[in-house]
Specification:
By secondary structure, the protein is mainly α. The chain is 72% helix and 9% strand.
Length: 307
Amino acid sequence: MTQNGQTGMKLSAGLASVMVAGVLVLLKLWALGQTGALSIAASLADSAMDLMMSLGAMAALIYASKPADNDHNFGHSSVEDLTALGQAILVGASGAVIGWAALMRLVSGEVSPLRDEGVGMLVMAASMVLTLALVLWQGHVARRTGSRVVAADRLHYMGDLIPASGALISLWASRRFGIGQIDSIVALAASGVMAVGALRIFKGAWDALMDRQASPEVIAGIETLARNWPGVLGFHDLKTRTSGSRIFIHLHIELDGHLTLREAHDIGAGLRRTILLAYPQADVIIHKDVAQDQAASRAAMSSPVSR
């Protein structure tokens, strides 16, 4: 997939999350007025936060899609990591608040009287269907593009599914058996899922901001392509770093010193195109060295005299 295609997919995921969050806020606001359920009130507050986070994620994706300029020679993709970092912190804090509130409600034994449970159940079921559809699309986009912003946005919508199911079960249990504590138990489980996911997103974004190298699988793939490329006699100084969903690759290849400039250029350009086909989100710079000079340099470095 081309870079423009990836940008389009990420923006579509951002727009979908904003639209779904807006619809959910309106639905749950109406359901809260009809039922007075605290579980729906908590879900409404969560959806309102989702809307704010999705708007921020959308703004970050638009900014990250800007091409490189004089002030940002390598593009603007780092804003994805900054946004993902902030989202991970907010998701973790939200999970902690939900878990604490659920724990306190269980300890106190507080049960709120509910009304019109059927209306609330219908709204929560509809919100879960919308959220599930969004999560599936965001997962597809995150896998295809490697966007941490989309992955972080998907995380807090996944976290919504468990509290929403808890609210649905709570409304059903209240209507059928007069039991109103089940949503607190489910909310505790949701807070744990959100905390684990937030830590994973936080670590990925932090590593990218600290210029951590690409994954071992990507590095091994690049090495395999370079090792087997026709005309390449060897390679060295392979360096990578990640920024948002981009991978920056620097590679030195060793060529026959008797090649013409055109022949050497064609070998390097062909290898670069192949790497970009395998990793469309990459930015590749290939430097060409003479194979004999590199062999002599390595031999001198390993000799007893040089030590």
